[in-house]
Amino acid sequence: MTNIINFNRAGKKIAKRKQEKQADENRVRFGQKKPAKRLIKKEITALKDHLDAHKIPHKDDKDTP
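Now predict its structure.
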């Protein structure tokens, strides 16, 4: 016996797969949301500041007094 196909459901499944594929492509293309980007940037600057605070000044550096 053959399977009965409901074209409405089949069309909806195909459309959903297409939307999911587009969403995956957009996630890769556009990246993270703005709050996540801000948090990462804030953490990076905090780590850089921490490392800069622990640097030993070198006599050849022009930035040291």
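Residues 7-53 form one domain.
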